[in-house]
Amino acid sequence: MKLLPKLLGVLVALFIAAPLFIVVPMSFSTAPSLEFPPPGYWLGYYAAYFTDERWTQPTINSLIIAFGTTVLTMLLVTPATFAVVRHRFVGRGLANLMLTMPMAMPHIVLAIGYYSYLGDLRLTQTHLGVIIAHTALSVPVAFLILSANLKGFDRNLERAAMSLGATPLRTFRHVTLPVLRPGFAISALFAFIQSFDETVVAIFISGRESETLPRKMFESIRMQADPVISVVSTLLFAAVALVILAPVVWKAVSRRRSRPDARGGEPVAKEPVPNPCAPTRVQLEA
């Protein structure tokens, strides 16, 4: 019975990763379009991706927009989360509902609303307009993650710091922030991914100057089966795998360095270095 959950997990993981066994080989294909199995292998489409401005510029735009969305989302979510979780005020439930409402709305409906609103402000087809729209989509995810971390925070730590004379700002910097740092990091990461991977709103809001990578991929697959799409997919998968595996490798290396000595099973204690200035036993007895 213990093997059944593990086997089920392996099957689900293989099912999810199955498209990669098709996409990755196609990124090295010599075919003029998406074809599997590939008739041959080369790196021409990788060179096309890194040298063609039609692909590099949307990638840069996506990184700029995702970074701006992450910063703006955290600036809005952090005070909102502390206010909703720690304080009671009139309209607290409504504020909680408004912060999470974009998660329940279809993106196509939100995209039409953003297009109409940002169009009146002349922010369509601009980086700022896309950042504002993506921030509205990223706030619910970041809010839920950060509020879950904040609810489990022991406020006695803050009370102890302030009882010793620390100001609220110093308490936040030296007590609250270090404890909640993983929650802030995960919230920022999800905000970045939400913006970088978003397609529907980007199709409505972004233009030629602010075209994002998902929009470019959508238009490329609609117009023609460009094999560069498989290159982009492979690079994105490699980036995600690197982000996931880097902490695991770091922990494994750190654990190996702190492992006790293999011969005795305990860490080897260093012999104390004798102090030449210390009195000897003969001098003490004299």
Automatic annotation (TrEMBL):
| Gene3D superfamilies, per the entry | MetI-like (1.10.3720.10)
InterPro entries (UniProt xref):
MetI-like (IPR000515), MetI-like_sf (IPR035906)
The places in or outside the cell where this protein is found are: Cell inner membrane; Cell membrane
Chain segments annotated as transmembrane:
7-28, 63-85, 97-117, 129-150, 227-250
Q: Which keywords has UniProt assigned to this entry?
A: Cell inner membrane, Cell membrane, Membrane, Transmembrane, Transmembrane helix, Transport
Record-annotated ABC transmembrane type-1 domain positions: 59-247
Note down the stretches annotated as region Disordered.
259-286
Q: What is this protein called?
A: Spermidine/putrescine transport system permease protein
In the record, the note on similarity to other proteins reads: Belongs to the binding-protein-dependent transport system permease family.
Q: Which Pfam families match?
A: BPD_transp_1 (PF00528)
